[in-house]
Amino acid sequence: MTNMANKMHMGVNYIPSQGWLYSWTDWSAQSIRADLTAIASLGVDHVRVHCIWPIFQPNRHRVSPTALAHLRELVTIAGDLGLEVSVCVLNGWMSGIYFRPFWQVDGASVFTDPQAITAERDLLTAVIDATADLPGFMGVDIGNEPNCMSMFAGNSVTREQGDAWATDLLQHCETLDPEKFHVVGVDHSPWLSDDSCFSRPILGQIGQASVVHSWVFFTGALERYGSGGVGTLHLARYLTELARAFGDVPDRPVWIQEVGLSEEWVAPDELPSIAGQIVDNAAKADPWGITWWCSHDIDRSLSGFASLEYGLGLFDTENRLKPAGQAVKEAISRNTGREAVARPSESSRPALHLPSNVVPDLDFADEYFAMVARGEDPEIKLVPAT
């Protein structure tokens, strides 16, 4: 079962080749099966799929039965192909676009408004009810980078309120289906800064795993270290070790839930090699799993996305494997079945101490990367403020 930490799990974030995530309404089971068959050929064991909030819950008191039926069919198809599915549900933020719930009124924060929270719990309940009996259902991710929703008007939230929101919704999912792998899919900001609506200690306690999203461009690592720099090639490894340091137990699973690379950031002929190295180096931290972003390119006939979003796939829109896809496939093969290593509280690994009053941003990460460059395998350890 996927939530057992006896091996490293490899997967991809599924972006349909036809119609992006608007395909929840413009449904083609044949196209979905073709996409998932291509994904299975990579040698992965799971996919992360993304609901679009206004599609799945067009009204505060209504969850779309059509969208739920399509979700159930997708999970069934994936299961038939040997893939488990993590369903990311409260997606107001996806691929640089805020998909505001149709029913959200001005000033009603999705994090604090009682009626909004009731609606969110209802949607999570409906998704779990629709999929819980299927062998391919892995669990729920309550939302894709939900901290990003706090940037938009009306969604004001304190860190205390954000922590309470994530804790409550994950507890709700675990009450409904305690055997599954439920998480909250935050991006890098809560780990690398102190201006997020979620705190590192809480993220190290709630859900079945701590989640990191490792993007070398958005974190500033690529600009700071260069395309071949240790800090770029080992960023996912650092984030995994950082999240593990905040875990409430020494062997707390850490999921690298998103890692990706764009031809707009590195030379196209260098991208496959860099992508493969990123996966190999991430695996050295023994995460629960590594899930590449993303499976397929976006059809350029669809407007409104930032230009880089169109080319992030391992496959093009005709299900042809791209050079980057081949490199990631080979990295998956090298690391599939790698035994996950439990991290004891005391070990012989060199320690990198993180005082409680220090923000573990890239300034702090510089020492981690320097140790890696010397051939060391640092263990980040929290210590009292100095």
How would you sum up this structure, described in words?
GO terms for molecular function: hydrolase activity. This is Glycosyl hydrolase. The protein is of the alpha/beta class. It is about 35% helix and about 15% strand. It has a single domain, classed as Glycosidases (TIM Barrel, Alpha-Beta Barrel). It contains 13 helices and twelve strands. It has an eight-stranded parallel beta sheet with strand order 7-6-3-2-1-10-9-8. It has a two-stranded antiparallel sheet with strand order 4-5. Strands 11-12 form a two-stranded parallel sheet. Strand 4 (about 95) and strand 5 form a beta hairpin. Helix 10 runs parallel beside helix 11 and helix 11 (about 270-285) packs parallel to helix 12.
Helix vs. strand class: alpha/beta
At the fold tier of CATH, the topology name is TIM Barrel
Number of domains: 1
Question: Could you name the ranges where pLDDT drops below 50 across 5 or more consecutive residues?
Answer: 1-5
Task: Report the total helices.
Answer: 13
Strand order of the biggest β-sheet? 7-6-3-2-1-10-9-8
Query: Average pLDDT, to the nearest integer?
Result: 95
Largest sheet, in brief, is: 8 strands, parallel
Oligomer: single chain
The helix content, as a percent range, equals: 25-40%
